[in-house]
Amino acid sequence: MSVPSKDSIAECLFSRHDMTLVDVKFFRGTRDDLITGEEICAQMKSAMEQRAMGAADVSHRAPISAHAPIDVADFLANL
Amino acid sequence: MKTRASPGFFMDVGMSVAEVIRHFSQRTDLSIDVNDVVDLVKAKGLQDEIEFIGVDYDTSIILGNFQKWTRRPGVYANPIYGVDIYFHRHLPLDWQRFVCCKELLHVFDPAFSLASTVEDIQKLTDRIGLPPEMHDWVKDGYPAMSDHIREYEALAVLLPMAARNQLAEPYEAGRVSLDAIARLADIPHRYVALAMHDAWPAVYERLMAMDGQEGA
After folding, report:
1. What's the pTM value of the predicted model, to 2 decimals?
2. In a domain, A63, yes or no
3. ipTM beyond cut 0.85
4. Domain coverage including residue A8
5. Which residues of chain A neighbour B38 with C-beta distances below 8 Å?
């Protein structure tokens, strides 16, 4: 099994000297075959670089739905 | 090599994931706003600053990433905690919402499922990178197991049981489709299919039975 090197993880997550990492988790991608740890770490590193370069969309709020809330009863009544 | 951060940081969440699920369980107005979950968690005492970060990922590899950090601004200052939730910004909105909700629920990760050292992260990436059919609940370890369980819990939050139950009979009668329910709940079709399956209530009960093992 291919695991990410200690150096690649350290470069990615432990180079922020003012910060201590508490926890990391991932949402696996869509590929059905093996995804290597190196590939996962490369994506994580890329995302952190995008943020550092100001190329990411940063918000205190989560993405919101494009449609207004509908009560299930109203939805079913209009079938 | 960094040492493991204190798991005590997670004691500031004064509730469990099961309580979050229970809080939303009677809602029948869809979709559930992920920000309602953020507000609930903060109202219960989470001190962390949470940021949602839309980036460009190769979605065949990962769709989202949760990172929790702490820093101490001064020798005698209280530590500051931060949660970064990364997601692929070009995903459809239903996927963006689902990924962010799942990652947000990691604020409840108990001490035994934290991945905070190089060795933890090596093992975690090694296990979650396996093809889905090779996942092994015993060998995966708690951090990888947490990654899977939070998906089910996010589903339980975003399609509350009261709403699901109202939809069950029309769905089984063929009067409403999975696609229509997915649009109503604004979550991915594949998860709606799971929630509307006959087995979902039993899975849901198992998630609720984990109460107390998640937030402690």
Report:
1. 0.90
2. no
3. yes
4. 1-56
5. 61-62
